[in-house]
Amino acid sequence: MGLRAGDTIAAIATPSGVGGVGIIRVSGPAVRQIAEALIGRLPRPRYATLSTFSAADGSPIDQGLALYFPAPHSYTGEDVLELHGHGGPVVMDLLLHRCLEFGARLARPGEFTERAFLNGKLDLTQAEAVADLIESSTALAARLAARSLQGVFSQHIQALVEGLIELRVHLEATLDFPDEELDLADERAQVADGLSALIAQLDRLLAEAYEGQRIREGLNVAIAGAPNVGKSSLLNALCGSEAAIVTDIPGTTRDLLRFDIQIEGLPIHIIDTAGLRHTQDPVEREGVRRAQEAVQQADLVLWVYDAARGLDEGVCPSLAPRVPLIRVRNKIDLLGESPGIKAEGEEVEVALSVKTGGGLELLKAQIKHQVGLSPHPEGAFSARRRHLDALRRAKGSLLAASEHLAAGQSPELVAEELRAAQQSLGEITGKFSSEDLLDRIFASFCIGK
Ligand SMILES: Nc1nc2c(ncn2[C@@H]2O[C@H](COP(=O)(O)OP(=O)(O)O)[C@@H](O)[C@H]2O)c(=O)[nH]1
Ligand SMILES: [Mg+2]
Questions:
Q1: Minimal CB count within 10 Å: which of 13, 42, 43, 338?
Q2: Tens of pLDDT, residues 201-224
Q3: Nearest C-alpha to atom 26 of ligand 1 is from which residue?
Q4: Is 431 marked as a binding-site residue?
């Protein structure tokens, strides 16, 4: 993968608007020239140098700090210059345009980090962690992203890859001496052992990555049930605000209402829906259709019913087979029951009263439990869907290898699966990755990062 060498990129790295400090970031071979033109000299490397940034006619634009990081000891691995001026949009624009006069061009989103990746400063999971850290919606998500940025995820992948390589070497040796029948059975047993150990290791990593992805992206939780059972009241209670309209008139909620909350660091996108019932009203009918759709797409459904009326009143829609569900027995205050949790096989029911608040904490704990979050996920790292996909593909290859081996197939077939597994793992860290994938990843970054 060749670096589009030769060009210099520049961007305002701080958010647009007014602030105490605004930072221009420049990376590439024109950095020296830009520094000399704007501040009259190349600042001492890695020292904050108070400087006057001047316009083409020599008049001052701003005064601030200049920082120079010579290649390769910089974020991008190239010559980098940072100008810390006053954070006003006009000042920042003037400074940026000065950089452009000397051959720099505007950086694309994520281009600084892309260069860092292409120059081997970061691997792909670390580069993604940079964006995840910036975008994290909870403190827990931020902590996990910081761990990925430190390379925790990459190290796990590396350990797997090393195990795989060892196994491949072992297998290649067998391939080279196909006639030594006696040793072959022994070799096969050893490879099989090595394979099961790797699969177990991969399973643990998958579980952790799944958790990391959940904490990064959050969970879609849909509240559904018959009209008037207290769905909107439950949404309000979980949000801690009067977000949704609550009345005793059935059919009040027609649109989907979405709110972002968090339960102990887990971001939750909670969706209130129209009560599911047959109706002639075209607006409400559309609401019911959308409610059904939201239920099908949710990661978890809170199926609410009115304790005083019983479970049969609202007929539970046929859910997609794997949408997990918690049944919420609401309005227990009307019957004088106490809050509690009861599990019957796969089904879990939480009895509560939104009105008194009794049992809400039980429901929150159950939500957290149901999505498979460990009680102390701080040790995990952030991960994305594409990482999970690649890990699952790697696992598929390892399972296939192990089947070939058990079926007494030729070692070439086994070796081929091991190679495929290694390839999938390499996609995660960016060792093997298509230009397309890279473009997609870095395009989602903000400018100046
Ligand atoms: N007694 C009692 N009434 C409730 C409770 N939760 C909700 N309600 C009432 O039930 C009615 C319908 O509530 P709402 O949240 O609009 O139900 P939705 O149609 O399912 O969204 C309102 O009058 C609420 O005040 C509860 O726990 N106990
Ligand atoms: Mg409602």
A1: 338
A2: 999 999 999 889 988 988 899 999
A3: 331
A4: no
